[in-house]
Design goal:
Layout lengths: L15 E2 L4 E2 L2 E2 L5 E4 L7 H8 L5 E4 L3 H6 L11 E3 L10 H8 L4 H14 L4 H16 L4 E4 L6 H13 L3 H9 L1 H4 L2 H16 L5 H8 L3 H15 L2 H7 L4 H11 L2
Parallel strand pairs: 4-7, 5-6, 5-7
Antiparallel strand pairs: 1-4, 2-3
Helix pairs in contact: 4-10, 4-11, 5-13, 6-7, 9-10
Length: about 260
């Protein structure tokens, strides 16, 4: 049975609503918080479905080169504010370098993602993008879509931080993070992606490595949260530092908890 949070689009992977969870005082509104992979291969039907969401803000967490390689498609009449960042202009995405340069064993994939999630919360471009996103949520302009390339790592971290602000139970926040493994159709896409990587790289990656690049594992989100605790003291202190202070967090909760 398909999870009702997942919007089954044709050319956009991992598109789903990350609201709807129970919190103290009520429940997060549905239809206000969306997350996804990139939209470069969105079909006309996908664009029509996205238009119906009436997005007010779209946060593109990708690097400039990623945006250039897979430019987003927009529906006619698209008016959402687009939040993106040009820091690191034309820099190669870390996962691309990893795929090209390493042995693609299960051990190397695990080490790569643990290191990535340890550093990701403090990457300068993420600090800027995350801060601007939370400012948009506090303003309450309307529905928001956050996305990166696969909609799982950068997007997953930002969704988890949002759930913290809104008071989502950690078990539910983790469930939402892990829903990528269903929404991104990891098992179905595994053979095709493995063959494509072997053809482009000249070496066959391990199944575990490919699964890591298509899906997520809770230990990676834990690594990010542990890094935030170690460097900032707490998630709230981290949010304070990027401009999502107590007043902004309260405004977000007042808007989204129903």
């Amino acid at each position: 049975m398909t999870d009702p949070r997942i919007l089954p689009l044709e050319g956009v992977e991992n598109f789903r609503d990350y609201g709807g969870y129970a919190v103290r005082g009520g429940r997060i509104a549905s239809g206000q918080l969306f997350r996804a992979a990139h939209q470069a291969r969105a079909t006309p039907a996908d664009l029509e479905a996205m238009a119906a969401l009436k997005l007010a803000t779209l946060v593109d967490l990708r690097r400039p080169r990623e945006r250039d390689n897979d430019p987003s498609l927009r529906h006619e009449g698209f008016t959402a504010q687009v939040i993106q960042c040009d820091l690191g202009d034309q820099a190669e995405a870390p996962h691309v370098a990893f795929l090209r340069e390493t042995d693609l064993t299960p051990q190397s994939a695990r080490a790569f993602f643990l290191d990535y999630y340890d550093k990701a919360p403090f990457e300068l471009r993420h600090l800027e993008l995350f801060g601007r996103y939370f400012a948009a949520l506090a303003r309450g302009d309307g529905p928001v879509l956050i996305h990166c390339t696969a909609g799982k790592d950068r997007t997953g971290l930002l969704a988890a931080l949002t759930h913290h602000v809104l008071g989502v139970h950690p078990d539910d926040a983790r469930e939402d993070y892990l829903l990528t493994n269903v929404a991104a159709r990891v098992e179905q896409r595994l053979p095709m992606i493995t063959q494509a990587l072997e053809a482009s790289l000249g070496k066959r990656p391990s199944e575990t490595a490919v699964r890591a690049f298509l899906g997520v594992d809770a230990i990676y989100l834990d690594a990010a949260l542990d890094s935030i605790a170690a460097h900032s003291g707490s998630v709230d202190a981290y949010l304070d530092a990027i401009g999502a202070d107590a007043a902004a967090r309260e405004a977000i909760r007042a808007r989204l908890v129903v």
